[in-house]
Design brief:
269 residues, alpha/beta, Rossmann fold, 8-stranded mixed beta sheet, 36% helix, disordered N terminus, binds S-adenosylmethionine
Length: 269
Amino acid sequence: MGLPIGATDPDPSVAPNIARIRDYWVEGTNHTEQDRRLAQRIELCAPHIPYLVRAQRSLVRRMVRHLMRAGVTQFLDLGSGLPNAHYVHHVAHAEDPRARVVYVDADTSIEADSRALLDGTDNTAFVVADVRRPAELLAHPGVTALIDPDRPVAILMIELLLHIPDADDPAGLVRSYVDALPSGGHLALSHFGEDDQVLAGFRIFEGLRFGQWPAVSLRSRDTLESFFDGLDLVEPGVVPVPLWRPDSEDEVDRNPERVRMYAGLGRKP
Ligand SMILES: C[S@@+](CC[C@H](N)C(=O)[O-])C[C@H]1O[C@@H](n2cnc3c(N)ncnc32)[C@H](O)[C@@H]1O
């Protein structure tokens, strides 16, 4: 019998990991048996969490398509996790292969897999960096090689801010990135709202003590909306994820207003 999951595992590339657990939930191929087992334990607390993660992936696809059609062809995906399972560059390149996509994550244990997923795909990069240092990140050669700061860029923060506690001033962090955007640049945010089951699921993950990140912070719809201060919100504003411009009625379950996971897209005037 192996060690209990995460017990004293010294190797972060083997220990269960939030990006690979999400990979399991979106039916990717970059997760281990350990990730799968922990994902299933989290599901016992929050059975709807795989649905939420998949709904969020679908949201990203709708947002990227919307942005491409609005003429925004550069994407900086902060806290990207693994660029797997039909994600930003797949959607952007289906519209125009010249679109540029830089994925950024601080988790070194997903670096090799992420680079392998992008191998042979032009106009994409995976950069290891901590988003809490915006000036450093925006000057990173992996970012500057692809992103032209004088043309509209979309900054994506999809379930990133839950890892930034209030003490680290998430609103100030968002502002630093928005300040760097040219007019016509966009900010996409999604965030888990206050959901006791989701919180219980995350507590299992945190309880294993190998997480690099502080305890997760869940936030209300109004708090998420306040992060868009100074930007023009694209219709329909900050709403439960399934209600952000669904492609079809099939994407919206019967009680979408009960989904406590919110998203919005803002445009810099
Ligand atoms: C909940 S996952 C979301 C992944 C992806 N955006 C998605 O929607 O599937 C959050 C990601 O943010 C990364 N992350 C957390 N804090 C970070 C930081 N300070 N700098 C860079 N990445 C960070 C984690 O490693 C993780 O991959």
